[in-house]
Amino acid sequence: MKRFSWFNVTALTLGFAFLYLPMIILVIYSFNESKLVTVWAGFSTKWYGELLQNEAFLNAAWVTIKVAVFSSTLATILGTMAAYVLVRAGRFKGRTLFSGMIYAPLVMPEVITGLSLLLLFIGIGLDRGVLTIVLAHTTFAMCFVSVVVSSRLVSFDNSLEEAALDLGCTPLQAFRLVTLPIIAPAVISGWLLAFTLSLDDLVIASFTSGPSATTLPIKIFSAVRLGVSPEINALSTIMIAIVTIGVIAASLISKQASLRQQRDEQAAARG
Amino acid sequence: MAEQPVFAPWNDPSEKPLIQFQNVTKRFGDFTAIDDLTLDIFEKEFFALLGPSGCGKTTMMRMLGGFETVTNGTIKIAGQDMNKVPPNKRPVNMMFQSYALFPHLSIYENIAFGLRRTSMDKGAIDARIAEMLKLTRLEKFARRKPHQISGGQRQRVALARSLAKAPKLLLLDEPLGALDKKLRQDTQFELMDIQEKTGTTFVIVTHDQEEAMTVASRVAVMDEGLIVQVATPDAIYEAPNSTYVADFIGDVNIIEGRASQSGNKTKLSWAEGQPNIIGTTTRTFETGQTCHFAIRPEKVAISVEEPTKAANKLHGKILDIAYLGNISTYHVELPTGHIIKAQTANTRRLARRTMTWEDPVWISFTDTAGVLLDR
Ligand SMILES: Nc1ncnc2c1ncn2[C@@H]1O[C@H](COP(=O)(O)OP(=O)(O)OP(=O)(O)O)[C@@H](O)[C@H]1O
Ligand SMILES: [Mg+2]
At A137, phi and psi to the nearest 5? Predict the structure, then answer.
């Protein structure tokens, strides 16, 4: 069979068009001279310049990044700890209940999570701002991290940790020097997952953000309700660029790591 | 040459054991893996645990290492109760049956791991690792990761890693299983050498009885969580305390019969129309008691002519001959249907052998060649 039969080519084109056409249109219109989004009036980068003048958007972007970094880091620490305990403790009374409770937020409607957090923050008198969004994002990202990490821990050979203890490590050292480096890829992908979840969360953030701190998705959403502006297109293009660069960088890094490993192998084979 | 004092601390009541198992029981749920075990192991011993798969050898090691809690009883090391001491505080290193090498570290770093946890300075650590690499012939592989070497090499890394800290007590769970015969023998001698130099006490699990015989000061034969016999290798071989041990270690003929004792000689009537087997024993058997006569094939002589001066002789015919190069084992069938194995050294060339299949032959043995066992 030919690799590029007409059927294959059509299927591929249709699939990619379906995935990327909306984004391509968005990118193209971000370079539109006209203020009207649907009318093409020549090429221009003026909306990007205007975006840089827009305090509100810049603030929101900054808040979003802060929230994403802090909440994903916190969620990774807590989620890894929870996964570790659940996998290691073996069978104890109430284990099923406990693990079920950790995974429940995965299937909980975001609206409910957001609402309950809002009620909690009001109840304890915490002013809504960056802190509350960070806490909220940590809460719901933590269970995702714990799912990712515990699936790795299940296949982790327990005797490695025992060997570390045997060679004189304290339990904490054994975790830091043996367990953590081995499960690191899972922990990192857990962190990335938490980071992206936090970046594009709209529902929970809108419950827990206050007038002092708004995230980018909220900002975009409220701006769009007043009409799509070319500025929003520019902003979205930047976000697409950042994500693309991130993905390419990540794959390059992992490719290089595997290349290095291969080189090591060959070097070792030569003795 | 000055006579070496015999190393037998287990016979000296004033000697303090290094390891004491006191009525130790280990249960997994309602399965009893170790059953009320009491055992002393002394300093500088090379103690071998032998037994079929699943009899509890690894479990014993893991309890010594601190990875398994004791259900009942006490384990003491150097007189100190170990039940609440965590693994990292025990003067013990263990080589795991699964090797448990750290996959993210090079061979070098694996061996260095334990040393880095001590206050040793860098130069001394490097020297020690070089020594270990040389000992296990891994110099060429120091920079590789565990997944880049062969199974036998991995086993040697595990061995080197556990040896590196020169612990007081070293637990080796089948340390040489994956090595070829030559390397295994070399490593056995190496281990004995290390033991002589450092005075480390070794507890070693092995499936290879020849290995246990070669290296061990004492051997414990286990069966389903129980220790059946603990003795020196020659005592285990020559004077097993039960048919289980006799059968487990080496090749053996076992004949069941009824005992009748006269002095230190015991007669065993074992089949209608056959002469009684006469054996020597220090035990006393009641008349008519069921009793087993166990004799090693190499202690059974085989001849074409009827022997004149043997305490026991039986007539039969050759059923099978197993030629093993240096020795041959003859399977002789007696008229009763019993099959007795007799072994001879092949000092003559094969072509001149006088006995062959179906030949009628005599087998004979002295009255001290076998042992009489009550179970
Ligand atoms: N964690 C555990 N839970 C339940 N049963 C166990 C556990 N560990 C060991 N056992 C059981 O205890 C018994 C003894 O196991 P152990 O590993 O000590 O055997 P072994 O003598 O080392 O065997 P092998 O020669 O095959 O290594 C086995 O029947 C095993 O199934
Ligand atoms: Mg075992």
Answer: -65, -40
